[in-house]
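Lecture notes, part 5. Sequence design as translation. It can be helpful to think of inverse folding as translation between two languages: the language of shapes and the language of residues. The source text, in structure tokens, appears below.
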């Protein structure tokens, strides 16, 4: 007895292609082009799998999925959608879809999914939780589609996720989305920025400590692991974790238990780990700075976020989103002209979405009219360009020349050179940013385009006192 598939699709061309693919795979396919036609077909025969479009002439193929699911809990459903938002992906999964394919899709993949679905026929209906609204991630470009698909695949399990991507690409936002939309949403979301915690405190911060574990441990302290029990622990900048903490983390991941610093008791913890890094971990493994076994433990489901310059299609939507946010934050309400949007799309966005966000806020503040036009953008871009040249006015020579000269006139012990030189470069940059923002670290971090915890930590290390820059 052959397998039966129901295809609900109102685009004839797409339907023809899918039918051909499914038939080649041994399916008998019934095609309907509306929600009503679908329901009629379902009432008349049984199907091993249903594939459905979202936007149909008489309704939304996802909104009514929950009913289909409860009437036919064993029939896997595959969603084919041209509305490529995370919202659609999540609504599809919440409605109990087996798989979600944004259009345009790869026919082979759809057919493969249909075959697998028919084989796995699920017995239980998935939770049909209330639909989520106000989803955080903006962008419908192809690279983001891949990200959304991966996100939906980890929502209802506890697999460890490693989010990779340059600074400002939205790694923390992805971690939050996984938590907020997943099966742990009623538990806590606990973010830890590994790079921002002094090395000697990191183990106690993560695992807690017992009273008297070290000088200054005047009371028992619960660590982030225990705090995240039942929820999600987001470990940001994982590449900066010191060796001892890595070993402890690996042990915790292997055993599902932790021990507080200075404690003997093993404590069970139920925590989903989402880790993130903007550094390439492979060279860190080769140089011995990152444990290979820990890398494999963390890298169960890698989600790579594309830099903004590789998804320019999303720039306009992001810019409009940030204008709305800016208005909610009390800035003047502005719109964006088409020319301005085109200009934004052409930028290189080395600071990624964070840089775009900062620029849009600045434009919202500085624009003279309700509409932000290309001219305003040029002005704001010029401003940021001079902000990123901390040495302007230093006169003769380029930065490389100045660095070379500085190196010539200093001596270093082994292992010191790189950090000493970078520190020298960072100092004037940070001082400049603090000067421009009157010592406001949050604004300085925004201007710099770096994480504010990273800034705080570096200021401590470089012995720069932000107070020095505050007025009065
Ligand atoms: N797809 C997106 N849609 C809307 N906002 C976004 C998106 N991606 C990033 N942002 C915003 O850009 C800013 C930077 O994002 P986030 O902090 O998640 O980046 P990150 O990759 O974790 O950066 P870092 O590595 O520097 O910590 C945040 O304000 C975030 O809300």
């Amino acid at each position: 007895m052959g397998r039966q598939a129901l295809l609900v699709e109102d685009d004839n061309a797409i339907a023809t292609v899918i039918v051909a693919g499914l038939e080649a795979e041994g399916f008998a396919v019934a095609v309907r082009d509306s929600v009503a036609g679908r329901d009629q077909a379902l009432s008349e025969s049984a199907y091993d799998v249903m594939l459905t479009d979202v936007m149909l002439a008489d309704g939304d193929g996802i909104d009514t999925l929950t009913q289909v699911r409860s009437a036919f809990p064993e029939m896997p459903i595959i969603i084919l959608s041209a509305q490529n938002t995370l919202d659609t992906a999540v609504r599809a999964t919440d409605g109990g879809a087996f798989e979600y394919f944004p259009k345009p899709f790869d026919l082979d993949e759809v057919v493969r999914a249909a075959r697998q679905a028919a084989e796995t026929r699920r017995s239980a209906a998935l939770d049909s939780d209330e639909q989520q609204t106000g989803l955080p991630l903006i962008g419908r470009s192809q690279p983001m589609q891949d990200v959304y698909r991966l996100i939906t695949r980890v929502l209802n399990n506890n697999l460890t996720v490693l989010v990779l991507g340059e600074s400002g690409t939205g790694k923390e936002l992805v971690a939050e989305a996984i938590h907020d939309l997943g099966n742990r949403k009623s538990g806590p979301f606990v973010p830890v920025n590994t790079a921002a915690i002094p090395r000697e405190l990191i183990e106690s911060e993560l695992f807690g400590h017992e009273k008297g574990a070290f000088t200054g441990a005047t009371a028992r302290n619960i660590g982030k692991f225990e705090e995240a029990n039942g929820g999600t622990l987001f470990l940001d900048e994982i590449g900066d974790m010191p060796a001892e903490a890595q070993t402890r983390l690996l042990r915790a991941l292997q055993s599902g238990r932790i021990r507080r610093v200075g404690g003997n008791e093993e404590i069970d913890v139920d925590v989903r780990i989402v880790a993130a890094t903007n550094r390439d971990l492979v060279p860190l493994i080769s140089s011995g700075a990152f444990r290979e076994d820990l890398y494999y433990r963390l890298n169960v489901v890698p989600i790579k976020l594309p830099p903004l310059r590789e998804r320019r299609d999303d720039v306009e939507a992001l810019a409009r989103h940030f204008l709305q946010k800016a208005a909610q934050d009390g800035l003047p309400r502005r719109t964006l002209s088409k020319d301005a949007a085109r200009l934004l799309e052409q930028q290189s966005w080395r600071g990624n979405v964070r840089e775009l966000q900062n620029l849009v806020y600045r434009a919202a503040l500085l624009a003279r009219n309700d509409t932000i036009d290309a001219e305003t953008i040029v002005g704001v871009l010029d401003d940021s360009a001079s902000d990123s040249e901390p040495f302007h006015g230093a006169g003769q020579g380029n930065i490389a020349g100045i660095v070379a000269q500085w190196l010539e006139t200093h001596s270093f012990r082994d292992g010191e050179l790189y950090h000493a030189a970078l520190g020298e470069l960072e100092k004037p940059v940070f001082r400049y940013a603090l000067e421009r923002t009157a010592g406001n670290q949050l604004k300085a971090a925004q201007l710099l385009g770096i994480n504010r915890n990273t800034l705080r930590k570096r200021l401590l290390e470089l012995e720069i006192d932000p107070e020095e820059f505050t007025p009065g």
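The translated text above is only one of many valid answers, since several sequences can fold into similar shapes. The longest strand covers residues 3-8.
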